[in-house]
Automatic annotation (TrEMBL), chain B:
A Pfam short name: E1_dh
Cofactor: thiamine diphosphate
Any GO molecular function: pyruvate dehydrogenase (acetyl-transferring) activity
Claim: Oxidoreductase is one of the keywords in the record: yes
InterPro entries: DH_E1 (IPR001017), PDH_E1_Alpha_Subunit (IPR050642), THDP-binding (IPR029061)
Lineage of the organism: Archaea, Methanobacteriati, Methanobacteriota, Stenosarchaea group, Halobacteria
Dehydrogenase E1 component domain: residues covered: 22-321
Database matches in SUPFAM superfamilies: Thiamin diphosphate-binding fold (THDP-binding) (SSF52518)
Species annotation: Natrarchaeobius chitinivorans
Keyword list, A-Z: Oxidoreductase, Thiamine pyrophosphate
PANTHER family: PYRUVATE DEHYDROGENASE E1 COMPONENT SUBUNIT ALPHA, PYRUVATE DEHYDROGENASE E1 COMPONENT, ALPHA SUBUNIT BACTERIAL AND ORGANELLAR
GO terms (BP aspect): pyruvate decarboxylation to acetyl-CoA
The protein, known as: Thiamine pyrophosphate-dependent dehydrogenase E1 component subunit alpha
Region (Disordered) residue spans: 314-336
Top-rank taxon, per record: Archaea
């Protein structure tokens, strides 16, 4: 990873996305954005606001409500010299574009012999805790990570959002960038200079000795808060941010697990067959002989996300749940 | 290929002979492959284009090298008409490393992106959004390239067709859809696939999207060629998408091994009277463009070419099993 | 010219093709496109056309023979053509497939890789077959230089676990060091994390001496650390002093042997099925009301009898590797007797009424409890029912009573009225779907009032198929019978004086009763409507004469009320006019109505 040592700026994730895409569009005029209401409204979370004024509606291009052609035409454009950034409003809508993602985007390079570059980004967002009900509240990065041929990253912090989004735009492979509605307004310091994170590299967000917590997106913030709380009780928690779901940086994760011997993995995907299962299996395979206790998985209970706040809160892990899970192992 | 000036007049003799050669090449290639598949030399499964040669040939004759096309599961004809080499095609069908996709694609996924051939496609209508993207890219890069998508009558029932042509209509994209109406969607006849109101003219599906609509005899290579020329010219001039229905017939089953239980008696024989591989040489001979001897020469020459192609495929190596892990991503291998 | 005719490949899922018929014989001339042979794959029949003109020179695969796609089945060539080149090719392809051993054709394709892979797999299996040991056991054995073939395995299928290796090491220590504490040689497996085991090995600590603080007392790496730091002094193993050793009785010993055998031999699978017991309890209540001594267990037994008849595979024994279906349906009932668990057998359950089942079961149970059960009482069972509901158990996994192949466990009726039936069956003999169907059929019976009522000799039916004011009258003798209504059954009989048996009211009595009842109720209703306080209403009805046709009917209503007589009379007048029963009485029989008004 090429990192920046020097000036930093406190920014919210949403502003980082806008700034980063703007920088990439300045840098390379083959980069363009398409999706529903990307111009005008600035995309479903208003994040892209102003980019249409800067780059015109040819490069910030509103599509009809057609996920199949939105994703498929992005693929065709990527195969013929453009670098599209497609916005799919909510990750639940990826299903509408199912064939294009599963059979076209993921397989085109391989089936055609491996030579064809497909520099396309699909930005979408996981949503939890917004009382948006089951179709608009989902985390599905595990779903696409299960399809060889796609690269899948999860952005969590302002700094990794910049590094990962730049990496995705500059990648010659299709990269699905899962943002998270719950972290858009999170603020933290971001290096001001241009940098790219390696796709496939995890980060230790907070070092510790007693228990490892591997966490993504909103759960990463919960894990950091839990670690803060527990440090007061003398429990030292190491927090790992996988950053990339596919490919997964097994080395960093396993190394941390071997050091502490106790692991919690927490993510907003459903507990059964979710990202947690892959992480847990990775840790068990790589660190089995150094584990002190079985890996603990935390995630959304196996129900569609309910609407009512009391119901939704019930099924989504919060900081308290992360704390409890750590205490179970510590 | 000739310039547009010549085309607007009568079709040049040389071009007519070129089209005949393309049709003969498609027919001979597939007939041989059909036998090799039956003899279990060619693995997998196989969808043949036999009967529809005039469509791919006429369309591709009207295109320039810089144009793009997407194809279907029944794609050998499109590939050959586009100019792909029969030896590397045969090698792909045999699963050999010298094939167009290094043995990773097979019959349904032959592609040569360098030749603007964005791939045959195993999913009905799967290529239409991709062609739409190529058309968008052509427009955004400020070129006069055109993207052509071949698909069957069955694809008109897929959402991908409608989403793509709607988008192309809104954006005035240089997208040309070729509806190859071969009377059957897999093993079910047209009348069970479309409402009566659409049967007489399948391009009606393009009407709300504002596409230019044309309907031609898919057994008449020159009719296909001329219609395509017109549509391509319009697209190049920025006048937006077009849809051409080419009415033809699939002489073979949906795939090899299909018992073709669904074909009414006599239907195949009737269509075979209009086989372009019979009618077109006769026409060229009648018009004095070609002699009987020259026709025989063309047949023999292409037969030899196909024989060589098969030998090339047979003699090529299978890919090293380790190659299964290569080519998933730009940085090579599969994920750890 | 000419070519080898091969069995055509007709699609992806084709393994073999059969030559159905040759349309020509050897030596026949054919033209291109003629059908020369008809072949059939798993999916379809296809005709094979001649690819060119020629002569069928050789038929290699005869009709009805099956071969893989691509196999030569004949030769089509010119009439005089030398067949040597074809024969060489055919020999080559036959040799090739012989070399492949398993008949694969594309020797240089991925299939040879598959063959290699399978060879590798079998090697692995061979190696693994030498010693079955867990990774942890192998690691520890390696570290300690233990020969795994000398270690007894206690894991699944005799696999050697890390504990086994430790035990082996400790036994070796025992042999040389008599001072080893008994705690260290305990047979109890030690529950310790992989990290703890590794640390213990590195520190030379016996895990048996370490206190565990993890879940379920598991020893963690930190526990080992703590143990090492404290110099191993903290360990205080729990001790066990045997207070009394009880010999098993012969009966208990037999039970122990048989259940042990069953548990080891039979592949036990238990399916649970809950159902609402409302119907079952209603029928039981109906039976109680008729003073029938029938328990829920008896009803269950009887229903089980029906289901065993419907699925005879469960009414069976598994002996000598044979599944023996039994004609008689004899159901054992587990009884918690003093001497141990006994299962007296109720014979021919499916042929008995539930009353008879109950009587038989009571007798058998009493004898079992009194220690008087005979061998006959306890043998001949074909299926067993074990009810632990009375002990408050929700559900449990019963052990099959060999050589039977299934047993039904019965749980308690929960507060919400449901009960769980647990069917354990021997999966070697019957499968899960069969067992599911068994439970399903049983529950069908137990929730169907008609089916349950039919098990009784006595009539317990509440005739629920009747509507209001719809009655079904059955005569059960010359002068007796019963009236069934939606709400229950009443009997009628004539007095002995007129030839009946006097066991129930006569039809006329019923009529008079109806009249009195209806008038009483009507008075109450009207009083309630008019807010007239009425404590009670009763009536005496007398029909005259006491034999033969009625000539008069006297009704004496007694009304306890604070209202004045005038108000009451008005009520009664209106009641007489409106009472539905009174209104159907014809004028030919005068009904006299008197009223007694009582003040409280």
């Amino acid at each position: 990873m090429s990192t920046a040592a020097g000036d930093v700026e406190e920014m919210a994730v949403r502003d980082v996305i806008n700034q980063t895409l703007g920088e990439e569009m300045e840098r390379d005029d083959r980069v363009y954005i398409q999706g529903i209401d990307v111009s005008g409204r600035g995309g479903t979370s208003n994040i892209l606001k102003g980019l249409d004024d800067r780059f015109g509606t040819d490069r910030v291009r509103n599509t009809p409500i057609s996920e199949v052609s939105m994703v498929g035409s992005g693929l065709g454009a990527a195969a013929t010299g453009m670098r599209p950034v497609v916005e799919v409003m909510y990750c639940g809508f990826l299903g509408v574009a199912g064939d294009q993602l599963l059979n076209q985007v993921a397989k085109m390079r391989y089936m055609f012999g491996g030579e064809l570059d497909l520099p396309m980004v699909i930005r979408t967002k996981n949503v939890m805790g917004a009382n948006a009900a089951a179709q608009h509240s989902q985390a599905l990065h595990h779903w696409l990570a299960a399809i060889p041929g796609l690269k899948v990253v999860c952005t969590s912090t302002p700094a990794d959002t910049k590094g990962l989004l730049k990496a995705a735009v500059r990648s010659d492979d299709p990269v699905i960038v899962f943002e998270h509605g719950g972290v858009y307004n999170r603020k933290a310091e971001v290096p001001t200079e241009d940098y790219v994170y390696e796709i496939g590299e995890a980060a230790i967000e907070r070092p510790g000795d007693d228990v490892t917590v591997v966490a993504t997106q909103n759960q990463l913030w919960n894990a950091l808060e839990a670690a803060d709380r527990l440090s007061a009780e003398g429990i030292s928690v190491e927090v790992v941010n996988p950053r990339t779901i596919s490919p997964l940086d097994t080395e960093t994760i396993v190394e941390s697990a071997r050091k502490t011997g106790r692991c919690v993995v927490v993510d907003d995907t459903p507990l059964s067959y979710g990202t947690q299962s892959q992480l847990s299996a990775t840790i068990s395979e790589g660190a089995f002989w150094d584990l002190d206790l079985p890996v603990k998985r935390l995630g959304v209970d196996n129900v569609p996300i309910p609407f009512s706040p009391t119901l939704e809160d019930e099924v989504i892990p919060g900081t308290d749940d992360v704390v409890d899970a750590i205490l179970d192992l510590a | 290929m000739s310039s547009q000036g010549e085309r607007s007049a009568a079709i040049a003799d040389q071009e007519r002979i070129e089209m005949l050669r393309t049709m003969v090449r498609i027919r001979k290639f597939e007939s041989v492959i059909q036998n090799k598949f039956a003899d279990a030399e060619v693995p997998g499964f196989l969808h043949l284009y036999i009967g529809q040669e005039a469509i791919a040939t006429g369309v591709c004759q009207a295109l320039e090298e810089r144009d793009y096309l997407t194809s279907t599961h029944r794609g050998h004809g499109h590939c050959i008409a586009r100019g792909l080499e029969t030896d590397r095609m045969a090698a792909e069908l045999y699963g050999k490393e010298t094939g167009y996709c290094k043995g990773k694609g097979g019959s349904m996924h032959i592609a040569d992106v360098n030749a603007g051939m964005l791939g045959a496609n195993g999913i009905v209508a799967g290529g239409i959004p991709i062609a739409t993207g190529a058309a968008l890219s052509a427009k955004m890069r400020d070129t006069d390239e055109v993207a052509v998508s071949f698909f069957g009558d069955g694809a008109l029932s897929e959402g991908a067709f409608h989403e793509s042509f709607n988008q192309a209509g809104i954006w005035d994209l240089p997208l040309l859809g070729i509806v190859e109406n071969n009377q059957y969607g897999e093993m079910t006849g047209l009348e069970e696939q479309h409402p009566p109101s659409a049967l007489d003219d399948l391009t009606i599906y393009g009407e709300p999207y504002g596409v230019t609509r044309m309907r031609v005899d898919g057994m008449d290579v020159e009719a296909v060629y001329e219609a395509t020329l017109e549509a391509v010219e319009q697209a190049r001039n920025g006048d937006g998408p077009a849809l051409i229905e080419c009415v033809g017939y699939r002489f073979e089953g949906h795939h090899e091994g299909d018992s073709q239980f669904y074909r009414p008696d006599g239907e195949l024989e009737e269509w075979k009277q209009r086989d372009p591989l019979l009618t077109y040489p006769r026409k060229l001979i009648d018009d004095g463009v070609l002699t009987e001897e020259e026709h025989q020469e063309i047949e023999a020459e292409i037969e030899a070419e196909i024989e060589d192609a098969i030998e090339f495929a047979r003699n090529s190596d299978y890919p090293d099993p380790q190659q299964a892990y290569e080519g998933v991503y730009s940085d090579g291998g599969e994920q750890a | 010219m000419g070519y080898i005719v091969r069995m055509p490949q007709m699609g992806m899922e084709m393994d073999q093709g059969e030559v159905v018929s040759w349309e020509y014989e050897e030596g026949d001339a054919v033209e291109a496109d003629d059908v020369i042979v008809v072949v059939e794959s798993e999916k379809a029949t296809n005709e094979v056309n001649a690819r060119e003109d020629g002569v069928i020179r050789r038929i290699i695969v005869e009709e009805t023979e099956k071969v893989e796609p691509g196999t030569p089945i004949g030769i089509l060539a010119g009439p005089e053509e030398d067949l040597a080149q074809y024969e060489t090719q055919i020999d080559a392809s036959l040799t090739e497939s012989a070399d492949d051993g398993d008949g694969e054709r594309r020797s240089s394709s991925g299939q040879s890789a598959a063959a290699t892979a399978s060879a590798t797999r079998s090697e692995t299996t061979d190696r693994a077959a030498d010693v079955r040991a867990s990774p942890g056991a192998k690691r520890l054995a390696g570290e300690e230089g233990v020969d795994l073939t000398a270690v007894d395995g206690s894991g699944p299928g005799g696999a050697i676990t890390e504990d086994d290796v430790e035990a082996h090491l400790e036994n070796a220590d025992d042999a040389t060091d008599e001072t080893t504490t008994s705690a260290a040689s305990s047979d109890e497996p030690v529950r310790a994390s992989p990290g703890a085991r590794q640390r213990a090995t590195a520190e030379g600590v016996s895990l048996a001496a370490v206190d565990g603080t993890g879940p379920g007392g598991a020893i963690t790496e930190r526990d080992v650390e703590a143990h090492v730091e404290s110099g191993g002094e903290t360990a205080t193993g729990a001790s066990r002093t045997i207070r009394e050793t009880r010999e098993l009785s012969t009966v208990q010993q037999t039970i122990s042997d048989r259940l042990g055998e069953s548990y080891r031999e039979a592949v036990h699978v238990t399916l649970n099925r809950s159902f609402p017991t409302g119907t079952l309890r209603e029928v039981k209540t109906a039976a109680d009301r008729r003073d029938l001594d029938v328990s829920l267990t008896d009803l269950l037994l009887r229903a089980v009898g029906t289901q065993l008849e419907a699925q005879p595979e469960f009414n069976a024994l598994f002996e000598d590797g044979q599944h023996k279906l039994v004609e008689e349906v004899n159901v054992g009932v587990a009884v918690d007797a003093d001497g141990g668990l006994l299962t007296p057998v109720v014979p021919a359950v499916s042929e008995k009424s539930v009353e008879d089942v109950a009587a038989a079961r009571r007798t058998l149970t009493r004898r079992a409890l009194d220690g008087e059960a005979s061998i006959d009482d306890l043998s001949g069972g074909t299926f067993t029912v074990s009810n632990l509901g009375m002990f408050g158990i929700d559900d449990f996994d019963p052990i099959i009573n060999p050589p039977e192949i299934a047993i039904l466990g019965v749980g308690r009726i929960r507060d919400d009225g449901t009960m769980t039936l647990s069917l354990s069956f021997d999966h070697r003999v019957v499968n899960g779907a069969d067992a599911a169907r068994f439970l399903d059929g049983l529950v069908d019976v137990l929730t169907a009032p008609d089916a349950l009522c039919e098990y009784f000799d006595a009539d317990v039916s509440p005739a629920p198929d009747l509507d209001d004011r719809e009655l079904r009258i059955e005569t059960t003798g010359e002068l007796a019978g019963r009236v069934a209504s939606a709400y229950g059954t009443v009997e009628f009989d004539e007095p002995e004086a007129v030839g009946g048996s006097g066991s129930a009211p006569s039809p006329v009595d019923h009529f008079l009763g109806a009249l009195g009842s209806c008038l009483s109720l009507t008075v109450r209703q009207l009083a309630s409507r008019d807010d007239v306080g009425v404590r009670s209403v009763s009536a005496d009805v007398v029909g005259s004469p006491d034999r033969g046709p009625l000539e008069t009917v006297d009704v004496r209503l007694r009304i306890e009320t604070e209202a004045d007589v005038e108000t009451v009379n008005a009520l009664v007048d209106e009641a007489e006019r409106t009472c539905y029963v009174a209104r159907v009485v014809s004028d030919e029989v005068p009904v006299r109505l008197d009223v007694d008004v009582e003040s409280p």
